[in-house]
Amino acid sequence: MTDAPQAPAHDEAHGGALGSRLNWLRAAVLGANDGVVSTAGLVVGVAGATDDRATLLTAGLAGLLAGSMSMAAGEYVSVSTQRDSEKAALAEEKRELREQPEAELAELTDLLEARGLSREVAREAAEQLTERDALRAHARVELGIDPDELTNPWHAAGASFLAFTVGALLPLLAIVLPPAQARLYVTVLSVLAALALAGWSSARLGDAPARPAILRNVGGGALAMAVTHAAGSLLGAAGV
Ligand SMILES: [Zn+2]
Q1: Number of folded domains in the chain?
Q2: Could you tell me which residues come within 8 angstroms of residue 205 by beta carbon, excluding any fewer than 6 positions away?
Q3: In a domain, 95, yes or no
Q4: Which parts pass through the membrane (predicted)?
Q5: Ion ligand 1 — residues with CB under 5 Å?
Q6: 20 to 30 Å CA-CA from 156: which of 42, 49, 83, 239?
Q7: Residue 1 in domain
Q8: pLDDT (tens digit, 9 = 90+) per residue, 56-103?
Q9: For the whole model, what pTM was predicted?
Q10: 107: domain range?
Q11: What is the CA(113)–ligand 1 centre distance, in A?
């Protein structure tokens, strides 16, 4: 559970709505990937120690719930904190606009000029923006945030919960549904296939080459399952 999906920040670089949608998608793939790897490691490990289906189901379900709730809680905390600091920055900006409007106009002019406008155009633009909605202009240009679109921590938490759960369901079902002799093969193969797909998707979403992303992702998952299975087998053999 290392890659907590980051709530999409205000990604101006990728241009507003599309960038924000891509960020959500990337976070969803990462969250699902986490659910696949951690639950697969868990159930494959327990399967090293026992053949009992009820035990496997209990372990897998507990892992699914613990993981998805930990992801959701972590996301809630981190987005709430981010939102609090954005609100504090907006309040500070509001106070400055009230107490020293001239200095704020000069500041906005400088910022726009730094973005490539000529001095006169920057001054004109700053005046118009200030007249229309000074706080929003400062929020966007100076702080890089949109005061109407602060990320909702509950939405971020729900999305994390859902993404992890969807990922975790795959190894959970793969370990409990097939007959006992086939369950390990079915789980390992379906997990590696899912990780290849997740690696490919995240590379595509990030405009990165697909092959290394797939290899890294599949390799990481394979390692996780190998380690937990070895540990589970040792414990099982020792009769713990
Ligand atoms: Zn300002």
Answers
A1: 2
A2: 22, 25, 26, 29
A3: yes
A4: 154-177, 184-202, 214-238
A5: 104, 138, 142
A6: 42
A7: no
A8: 999 999 999 999 999 999 999 999 999 999 999 999 999 999 999 999
A9: 0.79
A10: 87-143
A11: 14
